[in-house]
Amino acid sequence: MTTGWSLYVIFLVVLNLVATTWLLWWTARRRKSDGNKDAETTGHVWDGDLTEYNKPLPKWWINLFYLTIIYSVGYLIWYPGMGNFAGTSGWSSAGEHDADKAEADKKLAEAFSRFDGMAIDQIAKDPAAVAFGASLYANHCAMCHGSDARGAKGFPNLTDADWQWGGSPDDILTTILNGRQAAMPALAPAIGGDVGVTEVAAYVQSLSGIKADPALVAAGKAKFGGVCAACHGIEGKGNPALGAPNLTDDAWLYGSDFNSIREAVTLGRNGMMPAHLPIIGETRTRLAAAYVWSLSHGDKAEAGAPAGAP
């Protein structure tokens, strides 16, 4: 908060306290009117002799209000509430949050310390660990990969056997711990412009059994071998070490239609998986990874959620 806004807040707080104190003092005075030594009336009379008086509030009631004002002043001295003044207690909502989080993290660390450093395929054998991993997945992963983990355009399906960066326990754990950065460069200038892009797109479609023009496929094969094979391999089967996907199967991250493939070759692709180690820590990352492992290795995990479970 800037100094100007801080002074503005302090002014409003002090103004409200002073105005409230004055209002209580003013209403506590005994008001008199001509012809009535005790109190003035409001002018309302019912049934001929039932008069409404305008008398001060009871002293005990007024004094309670004064006590609340005194309490408010003490509160504003002890706790923050006067602009940038932090209060003499040193309390802050951020500090309390951090303390509560540290306590909760300590309890969680104690509860799951037995999984520290354990391989995720071994953790996946524990139903309780997988259930907790499913909760972690729902909180941190479902917004991209979906509640059923089947992904969407640009976000991989985690329930099948296709893994862009490798599907071993260590590969999956590394992906979630450290994140991944995929980079498909724009290749149109390198393969001959629009014509070359069309030829390569047709050849890529043919690799997975999609029908394409034979002439385009033949021309695209040569261009693919000279440029694209550096990452995807001469046979188009990909390279998990580089995150280059297998182009010969039916798993397509951005779509297998001609226009989607052509767009990828022309403009490139940039996929980013954030690192979760600094977000949820190593052990909880292992639990989330164990859940992900169980989705496509349910028979090997021997326990845990079935493949595709939300």
Description:
With 310 residues, this protein is mainly alpha-helical. It folds into 2 domains: 3-78; 115-301, Cytochrome c-like domain (Cytochrome Bc1 Complex, Chain D, domain 2, Orthogonal Bundle). 53% of the residues lie in helices and 5% in strands. It has 12 helices and 4 strands. The chain has helices at 3-28, 59-78, 93-111, 120-123, 127-140, 142-145, 169-178, 193-207, 214-232, 258-267, 277-296, 298-301, and strands spanning 40-46, 50-54, 180-181, 272-273. Strands 1-2 form a two-stranded antiparallel ribbon. A two-stranded antiparallel sheet has the order 3-4. The protein is elongated, with a radius of gyration of 35 Å. It starts with a helix and ends in a 9-residue tail after the last helix.
Q: Please give the count of helices.
A: 12
Radius of gyration: 35 Å
| Overall average residue pLDDT | 89
- Domains (count): 2
Please count the beta strands (DSSP E, at least 2 residues each). 4
> CATH homologous superfamily of the largest domain - what is it?
Cytochrome c-like domain
Unreliable segments of 5+ consecutive residues: 300-310
CATH class of the largest domain: Mainly Alpha
Order of helices and strands: HEEHHHHHHEHHHEHH
Give a quick account of the main beta sheet: strands, pairing sense, barrel closure. 2 strands, antiparallel
> From the 3D coordinates, which CATH architecture of the largest domain would you assign?
Orthogonal Bundle
Domain Cytochrome c: 128-211, 215-296
Main location: membrane
Transmembrane segments: 6-27, 60-79
GO molecular function, one term: metal ion binding
